[in-house]
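Forum: Protein Structure Q&A
Topic: Joint prediction for protein chains with partners

I've read a bunch of threads here and the consensus seems to be that you should model interacting components together rather than docking separate models afterwards. I'd like to see that in practice. Below is the full input, 600 residues plus whatever partners are listed. Could one of the regulars post the assembled result?
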Amino acid sequence: MSTITLQLKLKLFIYLGIAIFLLNIPVIYFEITKLNERLLNLELAEDLYNTILEVRRYEKNFLLYHDRDSVASNRYYYEQASELFSKASAQFQKSSLQSDIVQLGKTLLAYGEFEKFYKKSSPLTVNEDIEAKLRTAGKNVVDAADMLLIMQRRRVARAAQNALWWPLIFMGAMLLLFLIGAKIIISDVVQPFGLIEKAMGKVARGDFSPIPYGRKDEQQASHMVVSFNRMVQELESREEQVIHSRKIASLGTLVSGCAHELNNPINNIVLTSDVLNSKRKMTPERQAQLMDDILKQALRASEIVKNLLEFSRAQTSVHKEFDLAVLLRETLRIAENHIKLSHVTLHDEIDANLPRITGNHQGLQQVFLNLTTNAVHAMQDGGNLTIRAQRENSSKIKVQVEDTGTGIAKDILPHIFDPFFTTKDVGKGTGLGLSVSYGIIKKHGGQISVKSSAGQGTTFTIILPVREKRNST
Amino acid sequence: MEKTTVCILDDEPIVGDRLKPELEDDGYGVEVFTDSASALKRLDETCFDIFITDLKMEGVDGMGFLEKVKDKCPGSEVIVITGYGTLESAREALIKGAYDFITKPFRIGEIRAAVKKAKKKARRNSA
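Posted by a regular:
Agreed with the consensus. Here's the joint model:
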């Protein structure tokens, strides 16, 4: 059973069903034929019985009136009965009523013996002895015929019962077959479908765990479930590939940004060294300035490398519990000067009763400072900056940083979280701010998303989970 | 003979500061700018023989500056310098009429040689 495929199982059931149905037809035909035959024989037995009753009626008449007519009728019906008997004995010879027919034959023969007496007795006088014997013989014949009739009636009833029972038995077998087939379909098709439906929902949410089934159900697990698990595995590895290729793509941005950022200080060092190496005369002050430039440019290069390392390193951060509203207000205080100088109006819509959250305080401050700074940068000619923080539901806090600045063009929107991607001019932005922010929010199990239309402004939305205290990592 | 004039445009001040005395020693008249706006303003007044410009800059970038120079002073030659040279940007610069494309970091000697060659070309242009 275990290795038989579902298709084979269903085929087997269909063939079995057809076989039972085909077997049904000859059996029912046979039963009905038998019933029909027994009904005909019953008719014969009834005729015989009625004829024998006629024989006895004329026997009675004769014994009452002693007339010749009654004797003649009696003899006539006796002949009729004998004829019917020979027909019946041929019919019943091989049936279970053989003994009954033999008994009837004997009684008929015994009754026939009285014919001699009729012929001899003239005038027709009957002594009491003979009369009693005649009555007894007549009664025996009727009893035997009656017995035959009763037995045949029983046989007809049995045949009728059989003709009714067989179809019922076949229908029962078909029903049983149908139930087993339905059970197989439910366990092999419907249940796996249910499992797959559930699993598909999980896949849509990015959960690639296979459909679980124990070692011992392994052989019974539908091929569908096995195939589905294989597909999910494939999908998962594909997604890993996609993530990997995205990483490589952002590595490209990172490398080019890095090259550009590093090549400028290196170029400055090379040029200054060239000047120092040349035989040109210069004042000691100028020489000191060139030396200082080399040092400064070298430090600038090392700063870039340090930033890069900070970006790539999995920062070990201390998680603690704190009030997000307080953190947001602190951040705004740091950015206050910048906001005022840019003629930006600040709208504080921070709910003071936010639940406390557990997380990387410094990291989150960096995120919000970064978003605020970006927003102000986008509003060089002034505008409105709105910081909104509220409970989204029992397990989430939503923070929005909204500006009415220049907005982000549609074509660059997908790249803003890439490392080193920047629209700012050289020296003004490293292109790391948003990608670092993205990483920090993700590490908190949160989400960061952006909505922007060019010329209208930009809204960054951050969802942070409110969690029970968790172990700091 | 009149001095060949050179305009250096790079938002890194050290580049101009180091190149200016060296090129002046070679006999060029050199002016240095660290933002494209003031360089463009000066371009309105005069055509330099040779321009040296960085690509990535605030406001009008090196590619835009190159176009404006080629538009206003077709006889001048432009040397593009960049911190991150890609084949695409090099091709674009050359199509737009740049004379040379030099990636950072470069040696002073390279610039001097490039300017020297550009000078000959510029001379031929004006001749």
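The first strand of chain B starts at residue 4 and ends at 9.
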